[in-house]
Write a structure and sequence with these properties.
The protein contains 2 helices and 5 strands. It is α+β, with helices and mostly antiparallel strands. It has one domain: Holliday junction resolvase RusA (60s Ribosomal Protein L30, Chain: A), CATH 3.30.1330. Helix 1 packs across helix 2.
């Protein structure tokens, strides 16, 4: 999939939301102190909200999200371990008013994928409007 600049509709009913590079991420295999985990979760949630607002994603009744992690290097990864990070970012979309909730009624996905190398690492969400 060819990416479009943030804030521009790539096609009818599809938006690309890019988070800043270098954000600390949560990994399902980490054993963090609850306070540090909470701080990272809040930062990811706030970054997701701001990125959605910057991209001008409108309110959607239902959506599908392809979540792409662009790693900082070519090391082997299991992108599914980053689910806690994707979850926090999607909660930020709810905070931004893109979705009413991230439950099964309003959202399918995220389908997590590993993308091309990006210095610092980056999360990119491809949001597709789903019409019934």
């Amino acid at each position: 999939m060819t990416e479009k600049p943030t804030g521009l509709m790539a096609s009818q009913g599809m938006w690309v939301v890019r988070l800043p590079t270098g954000l600390p991420l949560l990994n399902a295999n980490q054993r963090l102190h609850w306070r540090k985990r909470s701080d990272i979760t809040k930062a990811l949630r706030a970054a997701g909200k701001q990125a959605a607002l910057d991209a001008r994603v409108p309110r959607l009744e239902r959506a599908h999200i392809d979540a792409v992690y662009k790693p900082p290097n070519r090391r082997r990864r299991d992108v599914a371990n980053l689910y806690p990070s994707f979850k926090a970012v999607i909660d930020g979309l709810v905070d931004a008013g893109v979705l009413e909730d991230d439950d099964d009624k309003h959202l399918t996905g995220p389908d997590m994928r590993l993308g091309a190398v990006m210095p610092g690492g980056q999360i990119v969400l491809n949001i597709h409007e789903v019409t019934l």
